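Researcher: Go.
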Amino acid sequence: MAHLFDEWRSRSPHYDESHEAVCDSVRAFVAREIMPHVDEWERAGRLPRELHRKAAAAGLFGIGYPEEYGGHSEGFTIFHSLVQSEEVCRPGAGGIPASLFTHGIGLPPILAMGSEEMKRRIAPDVLAGE
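Model: Structure:
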């Protein structure tokens, strides 16, 4: 089934095959690790901690974060993050992206203003889903 954003990306000058690769990877993760459990997690009001580790292992947490802390920034743009967000929102459960990507709120200030010691102590564990 084609997705509205698939059509948008194909027409946009800001998207290329690297964005489609992110889409395919995240879509497969969502289908395998989230879709079978989304209703159960919504009823429970929480995600299992293991999902964070699986998402990190699949590379979902590192997009746009510096490599030296475990991220993937070389060659990634904000548009890669948008593709990831679109796919994680695919199940239609707002709690999934809100819970799974809370590091997007707390980690940027640490990376922007924290000491090097703080960054090295905190960022790798966060990006590893710990």
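Model: The helical segments are 4-11, 17-34, 38-44, 49-57, 78-88, 95-100, 103-113, 116-127.
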